[in-house]
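**Discrete fold encoding**
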Amino acid sequence: MVSPSEQTLLVTGANSYVAAHIINLALTKGYHVRGTVRSESSTAGVRSKFSAFADQLSFGIVPDITKPELFEAAFSGTTKPITGVINVAAPFVLNVEDNRRDLLEPAVGGAVAVLEATKRYGPNVRRVVNTSSFASILDLGKGARVGYTYNETDWNPMTYDEAAVADGTTAYCASKGLAEKAMWDWLEEEKPGFSLVTINPPWVFGPHLGGIRDTKHLNESSHALYSIIGAKEVPPVDFAGFADVRVVAEAHIAAFEKEEVAGQRFLVGSHFDYQTVVDEVRKGIPELADRLPEGTPGKIPETYGLDGSKAEKALGIKYISLAQSMVDSYRQFLEADQGVSSAA
């Protein structure tokens, strides 16, 4: 196989929480990275994170990810050929005025656009790895579904028309499934010269690369954890699954590198509930104990299970425990509140 130093990976949504860890791993392994962002101003923060890799990192501006033609420049002018695309960029909006216009069309359109752009402008690309979601596996209509274990053969069954009139969270989950299905359908129809692999994590938690400087502008998953500090009650289960962001990054790079996993989807995750979060953080960071709700220590809510073993075997990932992930996450929150920023 060609050495990483002779290849470029194009990573969309380069200024996001998950993409930062993917880019870090890729650069560390020797790959060149072309990151895409929506505006020139978004490149500064990413550049500063990776100043030690300045000659391996470049950027492409893609102001609208639903338009394939806007990717042309992002695929051009790299010092080493682009052999892989890791598509992290996707809309994440729960409060929308119009589900079709604001959520479903951008999600499906963006998913297909990156494939179309790769076909047009990426002659050396052999694989696209897409960040999908456990939301495209989960059947929300079945609720807690106690005793059932989800795996990669499951699909969110909601149709486009049902999602168009659903509440924000339900429509968002449906959009992930519809977008992923659209990618597999496109691949079947177009039969391009590259393969597709999807990574389907639930909640993604864990430390921010470079630390947290401002707890007022956290990404959605980190905000869900941070908001428990000072809360009166332990939140009920929303998604009963999680993956540490460092593991999610490893899964993406492995999904690109391992030839034999072409055409597969991977549920990357394990059990999650907020009671376990507060129990573990109270043990791991005693100075936070009196700022967290107690709930019912040790009582794990009954809900569905997740089987993330396929990703362990095929991609060679090793899961980080919920306890470790939470302690690492909350330590950063604490340091940010105290005005200290720690690297991941």
User: Anything to note?
Assistant: The first helix runs from residue 17 to 28. The chain has ten helices and twelve strands.
